Amino acid sequence: MKYTKKLNPLQSMVKKPKRLETRLIIWVTGLCVLQALMFGGLVYQITAQSLNDHIGDKALAVATSIAASNNVVQALNNPQKLTAINQEIENLRQLTGADFIVIGDKNAHRVVHPDSNKLGKRMVGGDSQAALQGERYISIAKGSLGESIRGKVPVYDAQGDIIGLVSVGFLVQSIEPLIQERIVEVMIWGVLLVILSIIAAVLIGRRVRNAIFGLQPDEIARLFSEQDAILNTMRSGVIALDPDGRVRKLTQRACEILDKPTACINQDLMLSDLLPEHAEFLLRNQRRKMVGFELFAADKRLVLSRFSLQVQGQADGILLTLRPADELEYLSQQLTKVQAFAELLRVQTHDYSNKLNLIGALIQMGKSDEAIELIGQESQGSQAQIHHLLEHIQDPVLAGLLVGKYHKARELNVTLELNPDSLLGAIARTEMLERVVSILGNLIDNAIDAAIRASNERTPYVRVTVDETSKTLLFDVEDSGFGVGDDHEVIFTPQYSSKAGAEHGIGLYLVKTNLDSCGGSLEIGESDLKGARLSVYIPK
């Protein structure tokens, strides 16, 4: 029998994450309720204090008016008039809305009081002595009718002597209904505010949900954690940048490749802090994609790719991926070159097949001399170049490079000649050999392209000279092109290219970075082929 654990409804409710709209409603409503309670308490205090002050001022004003009345002064001096003044004061009490008006003699005994049974008795509350000493004031005290707000004023006779006091009071319990009326109004507005906050929370929640593609906060957090884990487990380093070069995302692998501490991940960095030699180049022409671009940084050869980040159809920065050019990547590049060379051989095989058919036809026609002459023309230049190359270039990698460039030039109808005075031994250092191959290969490619552009005016021609001294490797590459102009610095910038197409403009930049990495130098001059001569000097 299969057993399935069943969760009770409370556990299911606790485990199930709340939706964004629910959280916003709870948070906003809770905040508004808290604000409403705090605001209500504040309004209650302010209202109560304001009413108390107003009632106290009113009581004091009424008491002052009564104390200045001649009838009150005469009644205090002549007890026979107290009965008449009692009725007058009662009418005034009803008119002003006071809860009591009490007049006392100079001994604080009541001579006027709304309750006739309390006449002649001493005034209670303990707040009458100051008035008998000449002070006007407002007090809160508990008397025979209850706690009240009182205004107390002394009564003076014609000679200026104090002959009694007047006490006008409003009971505290009669003020409470006025305060409660105000609080009810505040509570109504508070409830309306809470309802409005719930509606606003729902609308805000929907807007936020649409902005984050319908994802809930828990899903966003999980997605962020997953993507961060994926990026940090990749063998390639990843650097995401703002358009101005500010680092938006930096992975641990990128820090390892660039020999930077992992603490850099949480720092505010610019691309110039990570790749100072190449930052300016990488931030220009950001829409142009680069794949498999080689450069030297952090004392190592790196393979870098650059992609433009597009958000809603707008450029929002660039993404860089980089990795060390290890053996697997090197073999992959070599395989690509072999494939290109195989394609070149296929084309040449087709060309030679046509020429063999021509030679066969000449022989069948009995024109042997013409066939022999064609064979000699076809093989003389190629064999001489290859024989001279293998005889004078002892390094097999460089020899293979020059053979490949020779065949490429022939396919493009460009004559490529290795100077008969060339002589070069083997290069023992692997990293030096890789840089030399990159430098020489890019220079020859540029020379072939330059010669082709000038082919309408003169025969395309490229001459290569390789030599060495005890301390220096020397390379000269000359072409029959139009030259490089007067501004020699601009040709080494990554944006410069005399050719059309986004794939051009980085060859000479690679030459410069490789020369900088191995401490070499380059001179530009004019060739007797009417084009440019680029001379490279690399210390061994």
Secondary-structure element string: HHHHEEHEEEHHEEHHHEEEHHHEHEEHEE
Structural class: alpha+beta
Count all strands and give the number: 15
CATH topology of the largest domain: Heat Shock Protein 90
What's the CATH first level of the largest domain? Alpha Beta
CATH architectural name of the largest domain: 2-Layer Sandwich
Mean pLDDT value: 80
Characterization of this structure:
- Helix 11 (327-364) packs antiparallel against helix 12 (368-392) and helix 14 (430-453) runs antiparallel to helix 15.
- The two termini are 80 Å apart.
- With 540 residues, the protein is of the alpha+beta class.
- The chain folds into 3 domains: 25-178, PAS domain (Beta-Lactamase), CATH 3.30.450; 236-325, Beta-Lactamase, CATH 3.30.450.20; 381-539, Histidine kinase-like ATPase, C-terminal domain (Heat Shock Protein 90, 2-Layer Sandwich), CATH 3.30.565.10.
- The chain is built from 15 helices and 15 strands.
- Helices cover 50% and strands 21% of the residues.
- It has a 5-stranded antiparallel sheet. The protein has a 5-stranded antiparallel sheet with strand order 7-6-10-9-8.
- The chain has helices at residues 9-15, 20-67, 70-77, 82-96, 129-132, 172-211, 217-233, 252-257, 271-274, 279-282, 327-364, 368-392, 396-411, 430-453, 507-518, and strands at residues 100-105, 110-112, 137-143, 146-156, 162-171, 237-241, 247-250, 290-297, 300-311, 314-324, 415-418, 461-468, 472-479, 521-526, 532-539.
- It catalyses: ATP + protein L-histidine = ADP + protein N-phospho-L-histidine.
- It is a multi-pass membrane protein.
- Residues 326-540 form the Histidine kinase domain.
- The chain crosses the membrane at residues 24-44, 186-205.
